[in-house]
Amino acid sequence: MSTDDAHFQVTEMPVIRALTKAAKQALLTPGCRCRTAVTAVRTISVSPRQVTSDASFHSVSFSETDHPKVLITGGLGQLGVGLAKILRKRFGNNNVILSDIRKPPSHVFHSGPFIYSDILDYKNLREIVVNNRITWLVHYSAVLSAVGEANVQLAREVNITALQGLSNSSLYLVVFFCFFFGLHNILDFAAEHGLRLFVPSTIGAFGPTSPRDPTPDLCVQRPRTIYGVSKVHAELMGEYYHHRYGLDFRCLRYPGIISADSQPGGGTTDYAVAIFHDASKNGKFECNLKPGTRLPMMYIDDCLRATLEVMEAPTEQLSMRTYNINAMSFSPEELAAEVKKQIPDFQITYNIDHIRQAIADSWPMNFDDGNARNDWGWKHDYDLPELVTTMLNFIGSDSRLAHAN
Length: 405
Ligand SMILES: NC(=O)c1ccc[n+]([C@@H]2O[C@H](COP(=O)([O-])OP(=O)(O)OC[C@H]3O[C@@H](n4cnc5c(N)ncnc54)[C@H](O)[C@@H]3O)[C@@H](O)[C@H]2O)c1
Ligand SMILES: C[C@@H](O)[C@H](N)C(=O)O
Fold this sequence. Notes:
Layout: H1 3-28, H2 33-43, E1 70-73, H3 80-91, E2 96-100, H4 106-109, E3 114-116, H5 122-131, E4 136-139, H6 145-148, H7 152-161, H8 168-192, E5 196-198, E6 201-202, H9 226-245, E7 248-254, E8 256-258, H10 271-282, E9 284-287, E10 295-299, H11 300-312, E11 322-324, E12 328-330, H12 332-342, E13 347-350, H13 354-361, H14 370-376, H15 384-404
Helix pairs in contact: 1-8, 2-8, 3-11, 8-9, 10-12, 10-15, 12-15
Threonine (THR) binds at residues 144-145, 202-204, 227, 256, 267-269.
């Protein structure tokens, strides 16, 4: 098994297992959840589709001076736990509920409210929102780019062990539709309950026909991954609900996010996290993208702060509802050169994953985030040297701590 395959197994299987379990149930049980979700969206008596365009959805008592009550879906991935931490610091521990379909590790479970929530289950979501008087919803649940694309070995494993009887193409169809229904559930009840809704998008929402250097907020968006297509869909649906029903939809297109204490969930930019762990532990790293592959990237602290800032931004500052945000752009060889400044013996080799490479080659190289900077004052703190120092210090002190214990 290659390092890359091993990485896939370690970091992506829980997500795939959880997702395919949901997908399998949805398809194989009578009155499957996919169908139920569609029915709920179409027939629920308070559906936005049945309310006039000037109706106010902001029926939940929530003023700008109150602390919001936040629900984070898909919160056990790379970003959710960190976001919960900064939101709890700002709004109080009990005002931020983390949720996922996976079992939380003990330190997460004991750090604040955690609840099971499957975004495909409209009733379950609705109960959580109503019972906890949720006012902000951060919709993090997703299947990232590389997991969403055809990985034959992984797909076969999943088909045999999780979706017996379904063909590869059926599996991808299920993932695709569950993703959409999940989003539709979220949009419908966010509008119904007057929630402020944050859905992250990505550099992956652009494709090979978009301008790539730099990529502006508004341009051709023809992504070639199912992940990108679903994110463009989310951007458009969110903006449509905003204009049509007054939904307070806010969306940031994140670059590849780099974090030390949480693992990425199966994306194309994951190499930029793995490199620090391998450099710190073994002094070498095998990269699955070509040396010159330039992509926009950001340290997690900047990403989470941007999320809080756009959620708190007064409505009148938002000239748009979907913004690019950026901090830096680099290629594997540039990142390796920066790591080498701190670990002089560090060696990088290349073993290209053609699926990830094709995805990366279709994505922006530089991201133009001028609108975010002008409208609500976005400003990043971490550039490449700062990122490398921070990551290596964090991982180094973490492993020294582990050795000491
Ligand atoms: N991490 C990045 O580099 C990056 C970059 C751009 C955008 N984003 C976006 O930010 C969000 C969070 O990213 P992440 O890196 O934390 O993702 P991740 O893949 O690490 O985590 C996603 C989480 O969603 C959960 N999930 C899957 N199906 C679910 C369901 N049916 N119901 C509830 N939860 C479910 C998974 O269990 C997992 O914990 C995603 O929407 C992603 O597209 C991330
Ligand atoms: C860029 C982003 O959306 C994610 N890290 C991925 O590579 O899929």
